[in-house]
Amino acid sequence: MNKGVLTGLLTPEQVARDAPAGTELVREEVSAIEADGTVRFRSGDRMRPAAVLLASGSAPRRYSAQAGGDRAGTIERLTHLHSIEDAERVRTLLPPNGGRAVILGAGLIGSETASLLAEAGADVTLVSRSPVPLRRELGPVVASALLHRHDAHIRTRFGHPVSHVTAGSESVVIGLEDGERLEAHVAVVAHGTVARRPLLSGSREGSIASMRVDHWEDAAAQGAHAARSIIHDVLGGPDPGEYRFTSSYSSRIHGSMLTASGVAFPTGRWTHPIDGAAVAVGIHRSRTTAVAGLDAASTVLSIAAEICHDRHGVADGTPA
Asked: How far apart are the C-alpha atoms of 215 and 256, rounded to whole Å?
């Protein structure tokens, strides 16, 4: 939704969500969860719920290789695109005629952001350390097809690590290791996210688990699964079983639709069931665990349905 705010399709008010009906919203900061399950707030108040679900979200992965030790947020025109405030900031830094933007990182968020800004009239350069971004997550065939879409619509600098970032009064300069300098009105760091793990006094070592989620559908599915697990434990509802990464997601990039589902394992292999089509199926330990495709949504979703019905699917790993 923050990408909708970025391009002016949505306003912050339109993406705001009220608390669900029947839910009490407590605007407090938690300071500790005690051994008996009591939640202690900074204000001094306490609450003893039947269960506690930590949904503290994620934080953008910081860019740490800048000259002089600067980080995103300390250079005026170097930012992330992780929140509504980030989206509004990027809009204010770009001139009305589109301006120049450099995107650091060509994963899903970086690719979507580059596509949206280019469609909005910005002069975009997409930079990635990897020569074929998303190769591990989507397989080499689909990742290569997406690379060609980027090359056809924007400037790309793939396989070119960043050496330093410097700031000017009206621009930011990205220096690449090959000596090239990219000057822009704004640079967006899109290096993924890390789980935001709360530091709570009284919590036992290892008692707070974290799970990285890279797309909204899986984040929502995990929240729903956690809620069903609480209903099972507290109220005796049906047991949802182990969580499996089977949620599908899609992303529109340069007019093409990228669709994927499942878990891509670093030790797995990719097969290509349809000659001439940008579709890849991920295999891990002789089981289908992931599928991805470009402009092949019906095929991808059909294969994804088979993954969902595999009762022996893999339950661990990281989202594709």
From this structure: 18
Give the predicted TM-score (pTM) of the model: 0.82
Residues 6+ apart with CB under 8 A from 232: 238, 239, 240
pLDDT tens by residue, 90-136: 999 999 888 999 999 999 999 999 999 999 999 999 999 999 999 99
Q: Is 117 helix (H, G, I), strand (E, B) or coil?
A: helix
Which DSSP string do the residues of 27-58 spell out, in sequence order?
---EEEE-TTS-EEETTS-EE--S-------E
What mean pLDDT is predicted for residues 190-199? Answer: 76
Cα dihedral 254/257/262/267 (nearest 10): -50
Four-way CATH pick for 59-194: 3.50.50.60, 3.20.20.300, 3.30.70.1450, 3.40.50.1820? 3.50.50.60
List Cα–Cα distances, 242 to 245, 272, 317, in angstroms. 10, 29, 13
The amino acid sitting at 217 is: E
